[in-house]
Amino acid sequence: MVKYTSAALVILSTSEVGAAVTTSSAFINLFRKNPKTSSPRSNSRRYSAIPYDEFAENFDDQSVVLPSFPSTANLLDIPEDNQAEVDALLAKKEKRRVARLQRARTSNYQITLPLTGSLVQPPSPSAYEESGGDGASRVEALATLVAKGQEIAVSNTIGMSLRQVYSGRKLSELALDVDTMRFQSFEDEVQGRSVDGEENAQVTGSVQVLQNSSLEIMKESFDGVVVSSVARGGLAWQSGVRAGDILIATSATIGSKLWPKSTLDGVRSAISSRKVILPTMDFEFRRLASEEGDGAETVQSFELSLLRPIGINVEETDDGYVTIMGISDKAAPVVKNNLRVGDRVVSVESSVGAQMWDVYSVDGLTSAVTSRLPGQPVRISFEPISEVDETTVTSKQPPTAPAASTNAVVGFRQAGKSAAESALSSSSTATQMQRKMLLSRSRDLLRTYIARNEVTKNIKVADRVLEAVMDASAVLDGKTLNLIMKAYNTCSDAAKAITIFEEVFGLAGDGSEKEVERIYGGKLSADMTALNIFNISALLHAHAIRGDYESALRVLAAVEGKTEFYIKGEKSRSWSGWGDPLNMLPDTRMYNIALSAAAKRGTKEGLRAAAKIFDNMPNPPLNNPPNNPPLGKPAKNLVTYNIMIDAFAMAGQYQNAFDVFQSLKKSSLKPDRVSFTALIKASIKSGDLEKALDLLDDMKWIGIQPDLVTYNNIIESLSNANRLFEAKDLVNEMEKARVSPDSMTYGLLMNGLLKANKPGPCLTLFESACTDERTAALTENVQLYTTAISAAAALGDHERALDLVSRMNLAGVKPNEKTLTALMGACIAGRNYGTAAKIFLTIKNPDSYAISVGLRALCLAGKFDVALELITDHRSGQKGLTGKQVMSGYNDLIQEALYSREFNVAREALSGLLQSGYIPSKLTFKAITEALNLQSDMPLTSAAMRKRIDSELSDRTFAFLLFVLDSLERRKLSVDSAFYSSILVSAAQTGGLQKRIASLLTRSRKIGNQKVLNLSETPSSSEFASSLVEWEDLFLNYSSYKEELSKSKLFPSIRVTTKDFGRVLAAEQAVVYRGGRVSLSR
């Protein structure tokens, strides 16, 4: 047998690279002094295995002498390799390579199973009837006939059960029998059968059950359906299905298309509906374990990013693998915690690029590791290997206690015990079994919907579970009650969780002595052992959601047996003797929940209460776990410190947050990623961005890898500070650290570019992310598309914005309200007003900003009636739009209506503005003057005069201007000086009646401004009202009022702002007549 020496996988640090090279050169020179040509070296792998690591570290000192060797010839006296063994080893390596490729190609497979049973005929009884002979022959013939019948019965069934796997590799308590479409427990799956070893593995009718090794292969976050058991000889077994395979998809009700499945309910519904239409159904599975050779080899690959020195010894073993043979005591924690002797090295990252290359020799692995630059990590993929002992369940009667394989999942190992106990005990009734089944099924349902975090469904499922439990008069156990309360807490219905706790235990949920009103009339109850730390923690969590730290503290006092604890006038009640005495002592987690409840209150009182709880908890001891300090009271743990740091940071007390962090560093605990992230948030909120960057460097210095949340917080602050280059550098650092940016990272960068008025680079970043296969999936996000559309709007490119929306729909991303609002802005910028108005009308429930943009789109598109109706509906300022947005909407409507010379719409809009209590602003007067092309200064040249004459005011325009003056006077409001001047200048250029009316305006302003009034000549109220005439009425009926102007008619005052008084006087000089005075009002 060939013997190979192990190679130390670099026990080379950055400073030792040169020494290692010197060592290798020394050995090469030594070999060349005494060549040995008589023994050709057929195995080059031995040179990489020379154990120079034992003294390589001494070669930095040139005075160190190499150890003396007895003889160079003896050193090189290496025996010939057995070529047959070498060839066999190479064949094994090639077989392993092919098997690995085959396993990667065939991990998924698809089968077709009948849903209505097969047509195999039962065996004929003639063999038994014709056997004759003695009794032994007839018994043997009968046994053969029964075995044949059992074999046919098994071959007529699918013989497969499925179970739900939740996050954390937790199995559902019930399995779905595909043949009967009923849910069954572990006991039902093995009912009437016993669990045997491998000697019965090939017996038809035995059942292969799920193994722990199969669960360990799955990711912690996996949530789906797995094959729990398969009957040997059944249709599923014959099609290649094995226990541990994952169900990926099933056929649709009609057609051949496969639909993904992740829940038992979904599988059951699909099979039931398919069975009505078609007799067969397609199933797609994924194989997690591959079977090679004599046994099944379960392979779970994982990847580590390591720095030199790695600290592992590897060796090429006879099976063709590069295997870990030793781990150094000085190895990094990531190596010690994840690797073990016997693990195989599968692949290593190439020195250039990110491609992973398969490892087949120590030479290749050493070369890939040593070719790295100093400080550059290397990714290595490993495989832990464990042998799978297939456990079978064979039909036997009567049921006996099984000899289950210890590798089977716990449920199957306990199933045999339960079956044996139930066979020996007759006290178990059918009703009790039904209630037990109900609770198991309820727990599975609750786990499923809690994992999905669907708020509405969580409430409905929890309510239905309660109804079913009360209808069956079942007594809740601790697990079921905990899941019910957790379901209500996850959907923020904390009050319902507290009510359920009070109902089942008859104790006040706030820990006080008040009587509990049982709303279910005592129909809902629980085993008193259910009153334990888990359900009490759920109760505390409900109080934390509500920010009710007073009740949380009272509950803690009740659990501790205190009866003299007062808070807010309520006295606590001792819960001693009510629940499980060994499982009710408060732990650190319970105190942390109360601490979180006080911190979440968001008030000064809540923060003071949190600080008091924190100060009263003992510091973590140096030699004892936090939950078991010498005084017996729960001590602080890392979570406690992190909650307090975050609480001070949220309250703006940044110095207190840093003080807590310093006390954490002085304790026996070490800060983690959460601690630093909370401090970084505090620094950012305090405006000290440099401090946040220093904390990020500190994290990396002590070996804590920042996560995505940490990076995103700093990237956001850098982007807001317009330090975009530093933000981009931080993204590059993330990628080097193997922290993949998410959609939020790109969104922060894009928003930063947009705020910096760089819409072009913003779109370029988005498009580059879309074209990169590594980040293309991240861009399928409605927020990123919305930002990109906003950038297109800033560029005025509405066609690109419309194209982005089309791409969204193709990618299956549904535009939301903000997306459509951004699209409206793009269409407005591109002067495509009709499309913008149509987009607005498609938004079902627009917010205030969308309404504001939509109003502008409707006005620009000429849809004045719709815009007027919309602004009238929102002008109160209480239906979505703010007062500023209402004013902006009225200004847009008045301006666009005047541009279109829709004077009636403009009049109605101005009247609505004044009737709503708003005062026209400078923007309102500016909108009118710009829309009517009015000038507030007299022309100074003849060319300008001729140009003005070409744009003389029409009577309709002048009448509208007078309407504005009348409307303002009714509310005793002042007129903008520039607007007043523009009316006079335009009337002077037009001449005629308009100039005559303008001259009367000047006299009214002067009298009004001087406030001259002869009290003896003041008319009575009735006389004043009958003699008052409005400006527009005077203009339209001047011939009727002409004779009465100097006798009895009074005109409204014109209140003009005092700004630009010189411009006002110049405009008035242009319209003054040298005639007699007219009687005017004040």
Tell me about this structure.
Strands 2, 3, 4, 5, 6, 7, 8, 9, 10, 11 and 21 form an eleven-stranded antiparallel beta sheet that branches. Strands 1, 14, 15, 16, 17, 18 and 19 form a seven-stranded antiparallel beta sheet that branches. A three-stranded antiparallel beta sheet has the order 12-13-20. It contains 45 helices and 23 strands. Helix 15 packs parallel to helix 17, helix 16 (494-505) runs antiparallel to helix 17 (533-546) and helix 40 (977-990) runs parallel beside helix 45. The radius of gyration is 43 Å and the shape is elongated. The longest helix has 23 residues, at 83-105. The N and C termini lie far apart (123 Å). It is an alpha+beta fold and 1082 residues long. It comes from Stephanodiscus triporus. PPR repeats lie at residues 637-671, 672-706, 707-741, 781-815. Pfam families: PPR_2 (PF13041), PPR_3 (PF13812). Residues 1-20 form the signal peptide.
Provide the descriptors you would attach to this structure in a database record.
23 strands, PDZ domain-containing protein, alpha+beta, disordered C terminus, 1082 residues, disordered N terminus, eleven-stranded antiparallel sheet, repeat
Rg value: 43 Å
The amount of helix comes to 40-55%
List the total number of helices: 45
Terminal Cα separation, in Å? 123 Å
The count of DSSP E runs of length 2 or more, i.e. the number of strands, is 23
Estimate the global geometry from the Cα principal axes.
Answer: elongated
Spans of 5+ residues with little confidence (pLDDT < 50)? 1-78, 196-201, 290-299, 387-406, 423-428, 627-631, 1007-1018, 1076-1082
Overall mean pLDDT stands at 75
Strand content: 5-15%
Which structural class best describes the helix and strand composition? alpha+beta
Main beta sheet: strand number and arrangement? 11 strands, antiparallel
